[in-house]
Amino acid sequence: MEANQQIKTTAVKGTDTARLVRAMVKNIYQSAHEAKANGQKVAYMMVASQYDEILRAMDIVPLPTENYAGLCAAKRDMDRFLLKAEADGYSQVLCSYARIGLGFDSLRKELGHIPEGSPDGGMPVPDMMLGSSAVCDPRFKWFQATSRYLEAPTFGMDVVAPPPQADLNAVRDYYIQYQRDQLSGLIEFLEKQTGKKMDKERLWEAIRLGDKAWQIWYDIDRLRVAVPSPMPSQDHFSIMVAGHYYSGTQIAVDFYQKLYDEVKYKVDNKIGVIADEKYRILYGGGLPPWHTLWIFNYFESFGAVFVIENVYRGFDPVEVPSHVKDPVDYLAWRAFLRFTRYHEKARAHSGSPLVEKLLGLIDDYKIDGVAFHACRSCRATTIGQTHIKSELGKYTSIPMMQLVSDMVDLRDYSEAQWKAQISAFIEALEGRGK
Q1: N or C: which terminus of the chain carries fewer CB neighbours within 10 A?
Q2: Residue 391 CB neighbour total at 10 angstroms
Q3: Would you kindly state where each structural domain of the chain is located, as residue ranges?
């Protein structure tokens, strides 16, 4: 990192509602500490694992370890945790989210208390850890490795989807039954840890709230097709907290309704993120650079606004068949339908569900250029990114770029290099407009 590198990390938001998220993040960790003090169960958990409503229905307080890593990066307090994990033998190419989490837990064990000055008070020792195979392999192995530093029952749940070339009619029943078995196994584990049975009516209520919040979130994103853009991607990387970390609660529903009303007002009154929107950019993939979110405002200084993104997005709404009457069956069906949303379109066209999704966003949001972020320690969002960029190029001629760093490890970031790449990208956009 250059000695004169800009210290600012956060971005200027485009909506007032997005500015409310900071308090919601603080509440995640405050609630976990309060729960521990009151004897309520707290669980380390992974985002997008399809079990959020189950935790809410069983009064288990979720403690998202990946989110905490992003928080540490935004506060520029990640190095001590990264270095501690590396001193314990974890490679610098291992997921930096995991390294921060492992380093934090290692320091907490070594010190006998939460490391002093930890962002938002740090994370308390969990009562259980819930891993997941969704998205990547470290999310399945991370909590197994954490057992070096604390003793807590661990459950790893498999979250699966068929390959795009599969005949969905032929494999549907198998995948749904398998997912149901995984969810049922999780519930059995949680019942053992909490000493109480799952209340199906409470689970249905959490599902209802979860679906409602995600529907409003989807409706907000559909408003964002407007020109000029009413809400930029830097706001998305804040407002996703409600959907991913408060899923199954009225809090998420109320938050998204408030945001919807604000974005709708901006659309109706043609209020854009910036005064002169020249270029509409798609954040095509890769985890966001939590250490340098101000870079979105740097793009805006050239008239380029990130109008939509393809990471940490809410799932598109799906319609579970009406004959599904059991809430666990419903969750299994919903997961299958979410994960196969673009499979048929891919089979008929490019062969890639991701390419189909990006092409749809490019068309719907009148995109002028695409930017990707290759994270050195995130294989799941980086491997294949160059290929996807190449495949997109077969169907669109708009400029595309790939910035390289890491989601939280600042050692892989160069401000000078990024600004040089952005300058060339803006020139390509300008040239295309002539």
Answers
A1: C
A2: 17
A3: 17-433
